[in-house]
Amino acid sequence: MHQEAVTLAKQIMSARTLRKRFFMQSMFDEHAWDILLILYIAAEEGYLVSKHEIADITFSRLSMLENWLNILQSQYIIVESAWPHPHLELTQDGRGRMRELLLESVAA
């Protein structure tokens, strides 16, 4: 696990959640970015996340997220898996790209 990258991803998610307490959520809708952060943290910490859990975490309707999920899948950044239960995960390439982005952010 790349702890610096995971720590930064968690800090970003926490700040994104916190700002929703102070401003309208629609001001900061970046569903694809939220999905990538959630799936990166899950992958690094060894747990699985379903579409419904992502909707709950982001306070979004699943129907709104579906478009972004389809885009991310079509670009081979995430995949949907059925085992051991339905969930989403980053592809190896998607996980590597997220790790690199986060580590470069830490170094900047």
Low-pLDDT regions: none
| Percentage of β-strand residues | 5-15%
Strand order of the largest sheet: 1-2
How far the N terminus sits from the C terminus, by CA atoms, comes to 20 Å
Number of helices: 5
Helix/strand class: mainly alpha
Could you give the order of the helices and strands? HHHHEEH
General form:
globular
The number of distinct β-strands equals 2
Helix content: 55-70%
Taking the sheet with the most strands, its summary is: 2 strands, antiparallel
Integer-rounded radius of gyration: 14 Å
Q: What is the typical, i.e. mean, pLDDT?
A: 91
Overall description:
Helix 2 crosses helix 5. This protein is mainly alpha-helical. The mean pLDDT is 91. Helices cover 67% and strands 7% of the residues. Strands 1-2 form a two-stranded antiparallel sheet.
Question: What secondary-structure arrangement, pairings included, does this model have?
Answer:
Elements: H1 3-22, H2 31-45, H3 51-58, H4 62-74, E1 78-81, E2 87-90, H5 92-107
